[in-house]
Amino acid sequence: MSMGSLVPQDSPIAWRGLMVQKAMNQLLFEVSWPKLDLLVLDLPPGTGDVQLTITQSIELSGAIIVSTPQDLALRDAVRGVDLFKKVNVPILGMIQNMSTFVCTNCGHEHDIFGLDGARRKCQEMGTKLLGDIPLHPQICTDADSGRPTVVANPESPQAAAFKKISEQLRLELGIS
User: Which of 45, 56, 78, 132 is least buried, going by the fewest C-beta atoms within 10 A?
Assistant: First the structure.
């Protein structure tokens, strides 16, 4: 389910806090969810109304913070960690997104957004690094086609990265 399903495709979503809260309530309480083992909410980065509404509306097992390795993005990630800690939501870990780009021609690895910034920040904060997602054009192509990489290209290295993170989360949450 996506917020994008609630508005026309070409319409901007320019909502104030109350509208966001109403939309979140619709997604959480008015969608006919099947029996779930896990519900992952992909929230925009930050420490605003959306995050506070979620923490006040439902009991969360934990928060996962996603960041690129660059310092500027990590500053926002740390703010997210601090917010969830202040409202007593456990931090399950951090995911380093767009960690490395491997050239499809020569195989050389490029650290476009820096090397291991999220890994270092996790060590500094005492937070678990759940894994790295590479910067790979196929992830974008798969997402645009509506098929997650683990479905569209299950044997690819990028799918392996997602599977490793899923396994880490399963262990962290005690899901068998």
Answer: 56
Name the H helices within 26-67: 49-57
| Contact partners, residue 83, CB within 8 Å, separation at least 6 | 47, 51, 52
Distance CA 1, CA 120 (A): 34
CA angle 75/78/84 to nearest 5° reads 145
- How is residue 161 written in tokens? 């990265």
pTM: predicted TM-score of the whole model, two decimal places: 0.86
Task: Give the whole-angstrom CA distance, residue 65 versus residue 118.
Answer: 10
- Per residue in 43-63, pLDDT (tens digit) is 777 767 778 888 888 888 999
Number of C-beta neighbours around residue 97 at 10 A? 19
* Cβ proximity of 37 and 174 under 8 Å: no
> What structural domains does the chain harbor?
36-173 (3.40.50.300)
Residue owning tokens 């997604």 = 27
**CA-to-CA dists, residue 77 to 26, 65, 71, 73, angstroms:** 27, 6, 10, 6
Give the start-end residues of each E strand in 11-162: 63-67, 91-97, 101-102, 109-110, 129-133
Q: What angle do CA 123, 127, 128 make, to 5 degrees?
A: 95
